[in-house]
């Protein structure tokens, strides 16, 4: 037997539709909860994308640092311009350290521009005093554009 059958006749009409109101309230509460979950999901996706960009920028800066360390005799060439000297790959020619540095810069900058949104990469440095035994100081900078329009950057200082 249902609950309504146990009630006196004058109370039965008062309870009619009560479950419908409960259902509507429950539906509103669930809808608000689902909207909150959707908003949290969007925020997570944005944060995850930013974290991936930061990780890639650090990897690119480390890659250039490794290239500089492995070609120490190029010295100032890493502070110059990028050029395609065909130093490796199919049909590669034998390159001087300076040509390899220019080729490294070209390939590295192209990779940064391709992978990071609005990606740009530079190598600047401080040349030691002539005749000193000091190491060259390089500043490797990788920057990109985030979805909110900001332009963060990763800066790595090395000596080689």
Compute the CA-based radius of gyration. Answer: 32 Å
Contiguous runs where pLDDT drops below 50 for at least 5 residues? none
Q: What class would the helix/strand composition place it in?
A: alpha+beta
Q: Give a count of the beta strands, DSSP E runs of length 2 or more.
A: 3
Q: What is the fold's blueprint, element by element?
A:
Layout: H1 3-6, H2 9-15, H3 18-70, H4 97-115, E1 120-126, E2 137-143, E3 153-159
Antiparallel strand pairs: 1-2, 2-3
Helix pairs in contact: 3-4
Structure description:
The termini are far apart. The chain has a three-stranded antiparallel β-sheet, covered by helices on one side. It contains four helices and three strands, in the order ααααβββ. It is α+β, with helices and mostly antiparallel strands and 160 residues long. The longest helix is centred in the N-terminal third of the chain and has 53 residues, at 18-70. The chain has helices spanning 3-6, 9-15, 18-70, 97-115, and strands spanning 120-126, 137-143, 153-159.
Task: Briefly say what this structure is.
The chain has 160 residues and is an alpha+beta fold. Helices cover 52% and strands 13% of the residues.
Distinctive features:
160 residues; alpha+beta; 3-stranded antiparallel β-sheet; 52% helix; rod-shaped
């Amino acid at each position: 037997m249902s609950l309504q059958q146990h009630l006196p006749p004058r109370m039965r009409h008062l309870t009619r539709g009560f479950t419908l109101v409960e259902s509507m309230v429950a539906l509103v509460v669930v809808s608000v909860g689902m909207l909150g979950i959707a908003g949290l999901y969007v925020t997570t996706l944005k944060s995850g994308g930013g974290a991936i960009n930061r990780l890639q920028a650090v990897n690119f800066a480390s890659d250039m640092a490794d290239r500089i360390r492995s070609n120490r005799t190029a010295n100032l060439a890493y502070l110059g311009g990028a050029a395609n000297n065909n130093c490796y790959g199919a049909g590669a020619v034998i390159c001087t350290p300076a040509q390899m540095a220019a080729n490294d810069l070209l390939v590295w900058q192209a990779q940064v521009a391709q992978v990071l949104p609005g990606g740009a990469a530079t190598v600047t440095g401080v040349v030691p005093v002539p005749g000193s035994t000091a190491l060259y100081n390089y500043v490797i900078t990788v920057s990109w554009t985030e979805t909110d329009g900001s332009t963060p950057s990763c800066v790595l200082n090395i000596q080689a």
